[in-house]
Every structure is written in structure tokens, then in C-alpha cells.
Amino acid sequence: MLRKILIVSTFFALLSVSFVQAADFNATSSTGQFNLKQEFSVNIKIDASDESINAAQAKIKFSQDILEVKSISKDGSIFNFWLQEPEFSNTDGTIEFIGGALNGVSGASLQVLRINFISKGAGIGEFLFSDAAITVADGSGTNVLSKANGASFTILSTTVVPAPIPAPIPPPTQITRQPTVVSGLPALPVVKISLYPDSGSWYNFVSQFTPSWDLPPDISGLNTALNTNPNFIVPPVVEGLFENKTFSAIDKDGVYYFHIRFKNNNGWGPTAHYRIAIDTQPPIPFKIDVKTGLTSDNPAPKLSFNTADSLSGISHDEIIVNSEEPVTINAYEYTLLSRQPGEYLIKVRVFDKAGNSIEDNVKIEILPIETPEITSISKKVVIGSEESLAIKGLAVPSANVVVTIGDKNKFLVLQDEAKSNIQGEWEFRLDRELRRGDYFVSVKAKDKRGALSLSTEPVRVSFAEKPVISLFGLDVTLRELLIVLVAAVILATLWFYRKTLLHLTKVHRESVIISRDLKNAFDAVKKEVDRMAGMIKSDRSSEEKELEVKVITKNIGDTLDKVEKYLDKDIEKLG
Predict the structure, then answer these.
(1) What distance in Å separates the CA atoms of residue 363 and residue 250, rounded to the nearest whole number?
(2) I need a surface site. Which of 148, 247, 401, 457 has the fewest CB within 10 A?
């Protein structure tokens, strides 16, 4: 059976997405005590207050020697699809079902099934879940069952039919006291119910509840009633004297009223009415209609949907895009904020005034408009000159062209806009200089609706320092010139040093060694200078050239250190 529920829940999960919390199965009845051959009902409900569920299954065991299933009713069930129809066996004492919903639903007391029993034997009749699962609509059919609360029923040996309204359980605790004597009639009772604290609100859960009130010292008796009549006058019959009274869970949705009336030495006072409104059913299922189409280049899709709630009424709606924070609205139409091209999962969740919800979702795709074209761009800008970064291109007519400039680490340096004319031509000029280095320029178009195109491939541009001299047809900046001059001075010094030592030591037997060491040093430095010259001629970025200069300078320094070391030894040998 568990395999079946995973199959059906996965099917429904493809239609809805939600966040995982927890859910419970609950078995409820109007009372826990019945007589022989008495018919009564047990409701199977789900408490899923914090998320939307879309499937559930259960296998239930009941005491077949004490209880007998007469029928199973699906009326009012949140499930509209049954992979396994509800079925029972009075021989084995089992009930089984697998149900699903096309729309995710949430609520604190969601109706699943009503089991109609007949009591056939005296004793304790058990109603227990032996296997169960509740799956949330999270895209994978996750089982979020936390608890499966069964029930037990006491079947008395008498066959006397009980009163239509069962006695409350437990009975109220009576108070014995001597009331004070007053001159007027009793005041209007002030009622409090902790389970339903706001008499003007709707609630989506049912359980035993206990109205309570304060007893003024003059009250000698009171009477209570629970019904659906808002103007019911409690009969002047003393029920007793107590400060609270517990009632069984209300088993049918609707508006109920608890009534109470006090009596003192002068007679009966007015009746107080406390409203209890129960709605455990979610709103009517609905479908989202995307007015702008499931696939469109409209960046702000318009949604339309319509549903109703026959009891408490609609409270509000939530619009959720992908996993963003919900947007709360109070209408059946909504236009999304402008979005970039891409796919989006739109979920609409409608809540009634009791907190139950029904949802639908739809996947849409926002298409990009035509990508603009860069027809010309200044790939090298000289810092300090009258030149500026200039870009020209073509785009959709009368659109904004968004120009984005980032550095080599993809950090945004600036973003600005240009405007295309009716022929689609556009031009952009940067009104300020950037620091020396390489940058990457890309553009995208945005039309009057806010619809965006995809970005163009980044184009590299360089901001370089102004050259101070031209050598052999090459522009050389001040930094590069200083590096060349330093290298030339070092090279000339080594050459002079070598010539001088060769003259002074030409007759000495160590002259050959000194000459060799100086020649090796000269060749090494010359190699680095040649490397520097080639680097200056290249079109590599300023950052790369600067890094290369540091390496060359270090190599020259290391070579000079070695020359100094070896020459000191050679001169020492020369005496």
C-alpha cells in the first residue's frame, strides 16, 4: 500500500509545490459512549495547518466483535481522486483507502471520510491506524505524517436509545453555597471559551471545548444550551450551579451558539449568546488563467483566477513566484512585477476566513526580446587624453540599451543606459575615465514594457596611460620608459665593468674565468631586456605587463647578485 501512495502522491506532486512541515490523522466522534445497536459516525480528519497536502492513505483496524461498519461516506472530502476507493471488511475489522487532490489544500480539520458504525457488542471498541501516510505537495511526495490519533468507544449493554443531544463529558462540577440577596435581576453572563476565544472569528478545528464564566455572589442557579439559534432564550429551568461546562466536539460545519442564563432571588436574568463558527472545508478548487500566455515576451504576466467559499467566505490570496516570499492580495487578478527572461513557477493560494486554503500552480516562460548588437567600440582608451569610451550599435527601435562595465573579476564597475532611435541605432559615450586596466563591456535591451533581451558577449576594452615617447614606432608610457632606462643603465654598467676587468687582468691566469662570468651575466641581462622589449610591443593588458616587469626586474636583480658574488671571489684570487 505504501508503494501505491508514493505513486499517487508523486503524480499530484508534479502539479504543486509547498514547504514541508507536519500533518496528523485524527478520528473524531460526537461522544465516546454509545448503546447497543446504536448508529454513530466517526470522522477521519487531517490537521495540516502549515502546509498544503495533496494525497493520503491509511489502513485502519477496528474491533469487529463490537463495531460493525454500515457505510463509508466521501461527502465533503478534500480528496477528489481515489487510487483505492474506501473499502471495509467487517470480517477482518479493516478499513483502507488511498486518496488524492488535484489542488494542494491546507487546514486544521480537513474532512477525509465519515465512517458510519453500528454497535453490535458491549465493551471497548478500538479504532486505530495501523498504517498511514500524508504527503505534502513538495515535488517528491514527501510523507509528513506526524501522528495518527485513533479513538476508542464504550458500548453499553443497554439498548435504550440515548437523547438526541448526548450529555456533555465530563459533567460540570456543581457548586454548593449560600447566595447573597439583591434587589435586581441577575446581570448578563460574560462567557469565555479558550478553544474559540474570539466570538466574531471563524475556526477550522474541532475538539471538546469548555465555556466558562464568573459567578456573581447572588446567583443561585443557571441553565445552558448549545444550538444554531442566535436568539434562543434559555428556558427558566435550573440546571445547577457551576462555573464551566465541557461539550463534545462539533461534528458539522456551521455557526453555533452557546447560551447561558443566570437566576437569583428575584428571578431569571437575560440570556447571553456566544457565537462559535466552524469551517473545516477549503475554498472551491480553481485554475490559474495566465492572460498573457504561458509563453510570452511580456515581462509582467497577468494572472486571473476565481473561486469561492460557501461558508466563511474568502479572506485573502497569496501569490508565490518560485520560492520567493508570498505577496498577499485581495483580488482575483494580479499582474506580476517585471521579470527577467526565464522560467517561473507561479503558485496561487486562496484562504478562507477560517484559515483553510486551496491552491493551484502554473509554469510560465518569459521570452527575451531581440539581443542588441555592438557595431563599434573603443577597445583602447588613453587616460588623460580627449578620447572616451565610445560604443555604437543596433537594437530594437525606441528601446533603452543597458550598458554594463565590469572588471576582470566580474565585479560591476558601472551601469548606464542609452536610447535607440526609431531605426534602432544607439550610441553610448562614457563620461568619465576609469583606472588603468582591462574591463569587459556588455549590453542588453529593455523596451517600453520593461521586457529585457539577453546580454551580448563581453567585449574587452583597456584603459592605458598616455605615452610620453615613441620608440621604433611603439608608444611607450612613462612607466615603461623608466623600466627601459633602468635596464639600459644596468646593461651599460655591466658592459663597462667587464671591459675594465678584462683589461686589468688579461695577463692573469684567472682572466678567462672572470671573462666567462661577466659574459654569462651580460647574456642573462640582455635576455631579460629583450624579453622586456618584446613585452612592450605586445597587446597584453596593462596589468599583465606590470606583472611581467616585476618578474623581469627580479631576474635582473638576481643575476647582478650572482655576478657580485663571483667577481668578489675572482678579484680575491687576483690579489
Answers:
(1) 40
(2) 457
Cell triple for residue 360?
Answer: 493551484
Beta strands in 184-286 (DSSP E): 191-193, 202-203, 211-213, 221-227, 254-264, 267-278
* Assigned superfamily of 191-278: Immunoglobulins (2.60.40.10)
Conformational region of residue 209, where left means phi above 0, alpha means psi within -120 to 50, and beta covers everything else: beta
> Is the domain 289-366 a CATH 2.60.40.10 member?
yes
Q: Among 359, 325, 361, which Cα is nearest to 107's?
A: 359
Distance (Å, rounded) from C-alpha 500 to C-alpha 180? 132
499: part of which helix (H) or strand (E)? helix 478-504
pLDDT tier, 5 (very low <50, low <70, confident <90, very high otherwise): very low
Helix (H, G, I), strand (E, B) or coil at 419: strand
Question: Does 539 have pLDDT greater than 90?
Answer: no
Q: Which three-class secondary structure state does DSSP give residue 121?
A: coil
In this prediction, residue 50 carries a pLDDT of 79
Length of the chain: 575
| Eight-state DSSP code of residue 291 | T
CATH of domain 2-155: 2.60.40.680
Counting DSSP H helices and E strands in the chain, the numbers are 4, 33
Q: If we measure between CA atoms, which residue out of 387, 477, 466, 393 comes closest to residue 433?
A: 387
Tell me how far apart the alpha carbons of residues 326 and 304 are, in angstroms, rounded to a whole number. 17
| Cα dihedral value 519, 520, 521, 525, nearest 10 | 100
User: CA separation (Å) from 84 to 4, 57, 79, 127, 300?
Assistant: 9, 9, 12, 20, 42
CA geometry: angle 238, 239, 243, nearest 5 deg: 110
Q: What is the pTM of this model?
A: 0.71
For the structural domain made of 373-464, what CATH number should be given?
A: 2.60.40.2550
What does pLDDT average to over the chain? 85
C-alpha 364/C-alpha 344 separation (Å) is 5
Give residue-wise pLDDT tens across range 29-87: 867 789 999 999 999 999 998 788 999 999 999 999 999 999 999 999 999 989 999 99
Domain edges within the chain:
2-155, 191-278, 289-366, 373-464, 469-574
Name the residue among 321, 49, 9 with its Cα closest to residue 138.
9
Q: Which of 478, 480, 486 is nearest to 556 (CA)?
A: 486
Q: Are 388 and 431 in contact (CB under 8 A)?
A: yes
Give Dmax (Cα) for the chain: 146
| Interval 414-451: pLDDT, tens | 999 999 999 999 999 998 888 888 999 999 999 999 99
**For 123-168, what is each residue's pLDDT tens digit?**
999 999 999 999 987 766 789 999 999 999 999 987 655 444 444 4
Does 289-366 match 191-278 at the fold level?
Answer: yes
Q: In what side-by-side order are the strands of the sheet with 333-335?
A: 289-290, 302-304, 333-335
> What whole-number distance in Å separates Cα of residue 228 and Cα of residue 258?
9
If one counts every other C-beta atom within 10 angstroms of the C-beta of residue 381, the result is 18
